[in-house]
Amino acid sequence: xxxxxxxQGKKLLKDCGIPVxxxxxxxxxxxxxxIAEKLAxxxxxxxxxxxxxxxxxxxxxxxxxxxxxxxxxxxxxxxxIKGFKVTKILVEERLGIEQEFYVGIIVNDSYKVKGPVLMFxxxxxxxxxxxxxxxxxxVASLNIDILSGLSVKDARKLVSKLKVPASLVExxxxxxxxxxxxxxxxxxxxAEINPLVLTKGGQxxxxxxxxxxxxxxxxxxxxxxxxYPRDIGRAPTELERLAWKVxxxxxxxxxxxxxxxxxxxxxEGYVGFHGIGGGGxxxxxxxxxxxxxxxxxxxxxxxxxxxxxxYRMVKLIFAQPNIDGYVLMGPVVANQEQWHHAHAxxxxxxxxxxxxxxxPVIILIAGNKEAESLEILEEGxxxxxxxxxxxxxxxxxxxxxxxxxxxxxxxxxxxxxxKVK
Length: 421
Description:
D-amino Acid Aminotransferase, Chain A, domain 1, Rossmann fold, alpha/beta, 12 helices, 3 domains, Dna Ligase, domain 1, 36% helix
């Protein structure tokens, strides 16, 4: 799920009526200086990366003048923080904080709720889970009926449950109500303001915010400029960006691809992993790992993708250097017509395997059009110099055997490669 940067989230808050601190986004130290000059006062300079814990990681600095802001920007821009390179910074007025609150909306997937939950706390600045455990009297929550929505009255009732000064109930309730508008308008999985601060001047402002958009809805909001709307805990690789382009331009089925390792040498036991069906594919991946094989990537093509989409995914897997094998692990009897996978595999593998003598390829595929798919694969892959083994539904519950075969073929391949060299 894609996390928005703080400046993106605050723009959405502002557009829905929540006042935000004055400031602007800079990509150079000179731009940071101009923004600070315009604000004419103490400022905060914040690295715009999609992770929490920026302050402790050195991603937030403070300045009392434009010159100091420029210096701080120079120190942050280009720096790598928690696996992300800082290319933008937010320069905004520094708030004089009197008190910190938390307000957030998350999706609760439990069978008892299955909907959004509004949470409010009189203690902000820390994880809400921590507050709920240590000081439950400081947290109140409300399950929101997705059909009837949230009213200002509902929000007011929730805020009033806690020890909040009467003068703050209305502005805090309004923020909670408007945050739900953001949540619904942008198909969010979560929308949190933490901390929501009361300034010494009596104003309520979001000092920071965290908004996570549903991945499947990303295409609806081009204005958010989400170059890679997936949360993988680090900056995406070039292959991962290319994989997203496949998904972005074709929503028929799933084409998921993430690299598990990028810096490895030939013979280290890394294989290209291609799964069909989340749970079954993970069982297959586990069987490989238990036998000492390592996953160079985790890819998934399920939900009836087109042959073109599957083809591109296979090509991305083979674009990884130094892999010692490829496996399509589909230990499920899929309801999608598998001959689309078969046609894609034949085309991609004929292109990739022509010059990979003895390269291990194992294909486990089952489901609709299975017999036709197996025939397409057997006929289409004849004559290639690789070592190819194809399995159908009889092996859906025999992933350990399939994993053992790949291990044996990979070991043979590595020995052959050493002799050639």
